[in-house]
TrEMBL record:
InterPro entries: Class_I_gatase-like (IPR029062), DJ-1/PfpI (IPR002818), Homeodomain-like_sf (IPR009057), HTH_AraC (IPR018060), INH-QAR (IPR052158)
Top-level division of the source organism's lineage: Bacteria
Gene3D superfamilies xref list: 3.40.50.880, Homeodomain-like
SUPFAM superfamilies reported in the protein's UniProt record: Class I glutamine amidotransferase-like, Homeodomain-like
Keywords tagged on the record: Transcription, Transcription regulation
Protein name, per record: HTH-type transcriptional activator RhaS
Coiled coil: none
Residues of the HTH araC/xylS-type domain: 216-314
Length: 326
């Protein structure tokens, strides 16, 4: 087995223990399913519950910044939000780890802490429908879309309902341990995998922990702009590099040249629109910067292996299928 995938789950005052320990158990089950394959090339999860009491000091917070986390998960609270001091400390922690390439994930009302960190500014996120109006008023620079259960923005992932931790957990199992492990984990836990295996998890999952700070800065900038309206000179300026050096380092760190990276990000983002009932393919294309819908269809097919129409049909079919594994 290779180096473990480090997953951190915040446990703060009032956070939902069912979400925290449900995820801990799911990742343990996934590890067992992965071991059963006897494939030494597979990596396993190493899960840390980062316990931050209401009396947590800045020194205690700083200790958690030293973890080399691939993912930081923010569970919801079942009571009121943490006090102002803890929100400030937690949001600083979230901001800092995100700047190192850690993917930040929120479940349900955990979106408040993610929003408070500032990393979702100018972007779209989801939360529980009951939090939508308050969150939108408090953070008007964020688009709060509660029509979707899960929004995968690459470096930021948000999930809506309280039980959406199962969707988040399976997304991460699929991304890091493989679709076969995700399906076997779902079967063990008797969770419906139809929509997950066919629709929700197919997409673009860029490398963010490559260690090149200049490239990471550009990636996060691309994500904030939805991959639209960006060009090579602007990217190189963001990185503080000359054009040739930037292209070489970006390609080396991410595995894609900058143009392909932006295309893949835009196509992946368009899936969120296709999953909204009533959204047309033309509208999804326009929302992601494609004025030519035929060009959009060709690029979509090239990267995802199906047409936008086929993708939308698979999603609708999966969501009308509610059978348990046998």
């Amino acid at each position: 087995m290779g180096d473990p995938i480090e997953i951190g789950i915040l446990e703060y005052a009032g956070s939902a223990k069912s979400v925290i320990f449900g995820l801990v158990d799911m990742f343990a089950i996934a590890n067992n399913e992965c071991r059963a394959l006897k494939d030494t090339s597979r990596r396993l999860f190493n899960v840390k519950v980062l316990e931050l009491s209401s009396a947590a000091s800045l020194a205690g917070i700083d200790a958690y910044r030293k973890h080399n986390l691939s993912v930081l998960i923010i569970p919801p609270t079942l009571t009121t939000l943490p006090d102002d001091d803890q929100v400030r400390d937690l949001s600083k922690l979230i901001l800092d780890v995100h700047h190192t390439g850690t993917i930040v994930v929120s479940v349900c009302g955990g979106a408040y802490l993610l929003a408070a960190s500032g990393i979702a500014s100018g972007r779209e996120m989801t939360t529980h429908w009951a939090h939508r109006d308050v969150l939108q008023r408090k953070y008007p620079d964020i688009t709060v879309n509660t029509e979707q259960l899960l929004i995968d923005g690459g470096d930021i992932i948000t999930a809506g309902g309280l039980m959406a931790w199962t969707d988040i957990g399976l997304l991460l199992v699929d991304r890091y341990l493989g679709t076969d492990v995700m399906i076997s984990t779902s079967r063990f836990m008797i969770l419906n995998t139809a929509a997950r295996s066919q629709v929700v998890y197919s997409g673009f999952h860029p490398a963010l922990t490559h260690g090149d700070a200049a490239v990471l800065k550009v990636q996060l900038w691309i994500h904030r702009h939805g991959g639209q309206g960006v060009n090579l000179p602007d990217m190189a300026d963001q990185a503080g590099l000359n054009l040739r050096t930037f292209i070489r380092r970006f390609s080396s760190a991410t595995g894609f040249n900058p143009g392909e990276y932006c295309q893949r990000f835009r196509i992946s983002a368009s899936r969120n629109f296709l999953m909204v009932p009533g959204c047309t393919i033309e509208h999804a294309a326009w929302q992601c910067g494609y004025g030519d819908v035929n060009a959009y269809r060709k690029v979509f097919k090239r990267y995802l292996g199906v047409t936008p129409s086929e993708y939308k049909s698979q999603f609708l079919m999966a969501n009308t299928t509610d059978t348990l594994p046998t």
